[in-house]
């Protein structure tokens, strides 16, 4: 067994351990919430809302944000500082908020192999569509404010709680602005590269990567403001690479491997990295065909395949693969520079993580 294989095995074991541990932590949180949250005595809808937030939250995947948070603390310490678990809960509750509202914006019926919260409400109240929409919005709002409440109630020292709240409120605000910019991007015929990078940074990188890094360091007693530039560079590069990968897979991925059909961004009218690259490279006739498919929910698999062929004719597949690898390698190099100040084993995870993220695409 090679050194890199053994290293990968060790790190993947740590990540799996975080996922398993957090599953129990999150379930216990919702058990306590159900017992302690004060709701109107007559209300059926309020506890139902909590149940739907719980259901979506516990359907989570590999909990990469949680892993990043715990590994950020491991940059400084091998212990589990006070407030670290609460920060993990906060990160995932904010993620639940984002998923609920994303599914409303995208009119998505499913999420995490189950119904989206919006469609769950539509099924419960088929004769009251506006109420179903309102209830779904409020469910997302509840998750957002619970993500802050859990930090306020944390047993961590007051300065730690204050610093964590500052990070999370900042991350939430930035993400909301990023979602607005994401919708605005799709009003642009062909967004330029900097626009796409900025949307990826604001909408996902800052709350999915930067905030967990900052929270983990704060819990461990480190002031992340001392390292703000390098943390922001790393988060932005990883976020861009991951968004490129997701957009690439949506158009060029293998549906059989992914377990879902391709072309979702086309049907939703999303000018993603992949769609924008095809539009930029296509000739006038090809661009007209792509534009006709954009935003058409009835766009067929054959049309998606034709758009994919247009991209292949112009080398879009290879261009995207090279770009996502370049950003991942830059992120890896950024993390490698952390060695003089932080613990080796945690630095190694952050160094290799961006490159492992490419495995599904390359």
UniProtKB/TrEMBL annotation:
Keywords: Isoprene biosynthesis, Magnesium, Metal-binding, Transferase. It comes from the Bacteria. CDD domains: Trans_IPPS_HT. One of its GO terms (biological process) is isoprenoid biosynthetic process. Its cofactor is Mg(2+). Belongs to the FPP/GGPP synthase family. InterPro entries: Isoprenoid_synthase_dom_sf, Polyprenyl_synt. This is Putative polyprenyl synthetase. The keyword tRNA processing does not apply. Pfam families: polyprenyl_synt (PF00348). GO terms for molecular function: metal ion binding; prenyltransferase activity. The lineage of its organism: Bacteria, Bacillati, Actinomycetota, Actinomycetes, Kitasatosporales.
